[in-house]
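Notes from the 1:1 (GR / supervisor)

We went over the backlog. Supervisor wanted to see one worked example end to end before approving the batch request, so GR pasted a single chain during the call. The sequence is below; no edits were made to it. Supervisor asked that the structure be written out right there so they could see what the output format looks like.
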Amino acid sequence: MKVKFQHAVSGLTKDVKVGFSWTSFFFGVFPFFFRGMPIQGGIWLVVSMFTMGISNIYLWFTINKTTAHYYLENGYKPVGPGWDYASSAWGVQLPPGFDARHSGMMPQQQAPMPTAQQPDLVALPGAAPAETQAPSLQKQTSA
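Structure output shown during the call:
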């Protein structure tokens, strides 16, 4: 079973499988690097070298859970079906506003997207008007 994550700002979606990782089985610690997690990959690479690869057996069963936790901590939100099962398998609390029956965030409970607004220009007390602050771009003629 796969669970989808969507980044709140960029809208990028990623899938994470629940359970055993065949990718880690064949490629060891390198899926951490493929998934954008170089610090965890570096740590596991060192641990794997010290244990002569035996630690990878533990990694095969935990890398997907670690990836899910990383995505949740870095701005990704769960979308789509499968969270009722995945949350218990990974030990993750369902986020506020999440309804497992509807397989996603309820529309009325989603936070509004920020809009770009022009900042209000406020004159400081004692400052000259804006048009007199800017230097003149016209040539000055000598009299």
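Supervisor's comment: The mean pLDDT is 75.
Batch request approved.
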